[in-house]
Specification:
Layout (H helix, E strand, L loop, with lengths): L2 H5 L8 H13 L4 E5 L5 H8 L3 E5 L14 E7 L8 H11 E12 L1 H4 L15 H10 L3 E9 L2 H5 L4 H10 L7 H7 L1 E8 L1
Parallel strand pairs: 1-2, 1-3, 3-4
Antiparallel strand pairs: 4-6, 5-6
Helix pairs in contact: 2-3, 8-9
């Protein structure tokens, strides 16, 4: 069995990917070409296409080799990818290479500082990131205008961020692993990073 089928199964898609891709498209005024790096089942890829982008997807296992020319994409997006790599700097270099000048990289990874107790639940996690290390990996590899923030995956919080404390309180009530997405997403804090070539 593959990682995707074991961890995510073949359950019907939810509307979360379309909400996240719409949010990111609007927030960063995305247009043109986009690569969804580590696109998994293609939920986010389809979301970006529905937002009007010319979107491509790529999955990889083992050695990372991208098959795109220099300066190809306006945007490269990855969600929950870099933390699975022993050498994430290899993929960051490739992202820089395939982005057009002025292109944008958007990356989401679990926040080690907030998730260290549940981080080992996925045995394929290899490289933990905190806000400073995610920022630094992009700066070291030539990116500019690097921004990193803590991000909860609950769409209502994107509109009403003042509800963060409520989610924090709810997360204290559920200390063990859960399959309930609402509870899981109230517990997990991601890092949302953006960087320009």
């Amino acid at each position: 069995m593959s990682y995707l089928s074991t961890i995510y199964g073949s359950k019907p898609f939810t509307d979360y990917p379309s909400k996240l891709t719409r949010y990111l498209t609007d927030r960063y005024s995305l247009k043109g070409t986009l690569l969804d790096l580590g696109c998994g089942r293609g939920e986010f890829l389809e979301g970006f296409k529905k937002c009007g982008l010319e979107a491509w997807g790529l999955n990889f296992e083992g050695e990372i080799k991208l098959c795109y020319s220099n300066n190809t994409f306006d945007t490269v997006f990855s969600k929950s990818v870099l933390e699975h790599l022993y050498y994430p700097e290899k993929i960051v270099k490739e992202i820089y290479r395939i982005l057009k000048p002025g292109g944008l990289c958007i990356t989401m990874v679990p926040d080690w500082e907030a998730n260290y107790k549940i981080y080992p639940e996925d045995y394929t996690h290899r490289t933990p990131f905190m806000a400073s290390s995610l920022r630094d990996i992009f700066l070291i590899h030539g990116f500019k205008d690097v921004k990193v923030e803590k991000f909860r995956q609950l769409p209502f919080l994107w509109k009403w961020p003042w509800l963060w404390p409520v989610c924090w309180g709810a997360s204290l009530l559920y200390r063990s692993s859960t399959k309930n997405k609402m509870i899981k997403f109230s517990k997990e804090i991601m890092l949302l990073g953006s960087a320009k070539k």
